[in-house]
């Protein structure tokens, strides 16, 4: 190996993470076109946690939808562990959790959590074991036989997270997972999610509108701006991975909050912030 190559960062680590390379997304509706993403580049190392934050319409959900193989970018490439989204989906490497938990109302919690495994044709006994493990992890033990209508919004969201976890995804893609919940519950689920991430070692890409949630749940916050959607800033959050609610009292927390507020003000083109 040449000296130049030996000095490169380890390729494997890079390949195991998420890579967004020159991704452009233009939606066409009749004669109207919208550039939802213009030349986005982002590297997310395996096992790290990244949040996307930015004004409405800056392309956050689009980026997640590209990674989860729902839409194809107009140009550029998105890779998860070196695989295209289509390949990663076939290998069930990622799970997507969105704002409103989709539950089948006629199925009990346990059966809803088992759904992904059923689709993956995992045998019944194994399905049950993994679903129970995931239910335990999100703190829903005792509610296995409840129907979704008997759960609170927060519990339904936990069930959706449990369903995602049963597939043991290397990549957890979350689009405003706690957006519909009240502040207190959101806070609690943030720290529960941190514990789950530490246990599963999953790589997290999270879309959020909350500055404090972004700080709590990230190693890096990526600020985006609209028209056309692009990445304007990447802010490192150096709290390490063993976080407790006490990080809010750390003076760095307040500094990061104001840094992010400022970055968001600029990304919206508001010079008064
Ligand atoms: N299917 C679609 N067809 C046409 N335009 C679309 C489509 N989906 C999104 N867009 C447009 O692309 C842009 C980016 O949308 P996207 O939903 O990715 O933004 P976002 O940052 O997630 O917004 P929000 O924070 O409001 O959820 C917006 O201008 C939106 O109107």
From TrEMBL:
Origin superkingdom: Bacteria
Name of one Pfam family that matches: ABC_tran
GO function terms (MF aspect): ATP binding; ATP hydrolysis activity
Ranges of residues in domain ABC transporter: 20-251
Keywords: ATP-binding, Nucleotide-binding, Transport
Family: Belongs to the ABC transporter superfamily.
Protein name: ABC transporter ATP-binding protein
Native species: Acidisoma cellulosilyticum
């Amino acid at each position: 190996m040449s000296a130049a190559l030996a000095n490169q960062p380890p390729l494997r680590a890079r390949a195991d993470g998420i890579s967004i390379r020159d991704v452009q997304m233009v939606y066409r509706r009749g004669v109207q076109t919208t550039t939802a993403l213009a030349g986005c580049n982002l590297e997310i190392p395996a096992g790290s946690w990244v949040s996307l934050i930015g004004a409405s319409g800056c392309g956050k959900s689009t980026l997640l939808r590209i990674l989860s193989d729902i839409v194809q970018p107009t140009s550029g490439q998105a890779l998860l562990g070196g695989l295209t989204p289509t390949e990663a989906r076939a290998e069930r490497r990622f799970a997507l959790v969105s704002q409103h938990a989709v539950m089948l109302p006629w199925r009990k919690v346990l059966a809803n959590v088992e759904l992904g495994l059923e689709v993956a044709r995992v045998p019944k006994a194994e399905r049950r074991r993994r679903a129970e493990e995931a239910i335990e992890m999100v703190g829903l033990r005792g509610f296995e036989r409840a129907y979704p209508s008997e759960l609170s919004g927060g519990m339904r969201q936990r069930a959706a997270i449990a369903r995602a976890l049963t597939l043991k995804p290397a990549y957890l893609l979350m689009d405003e997972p706690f957006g519909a919940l009240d502040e207190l519950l959101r806070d609690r689920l943030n720290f529960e999610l941190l514990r789950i991430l530490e246990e599963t070692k999953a790589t997290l890409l999270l879309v959020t509108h909350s500055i404090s949630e972004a700080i709590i749940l990230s190693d890096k916050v990526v600020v985006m701006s609209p028209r056309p959607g692009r990445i304007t800033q990447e802010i490192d959050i150096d709290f390490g991975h063993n976080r407790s609610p006490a990080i809010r009292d750390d003076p760095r927390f307040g500094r990061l909050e104001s840094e992010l507020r400022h970055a968001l003000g600029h990304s919206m083109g508001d010079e008064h912030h």
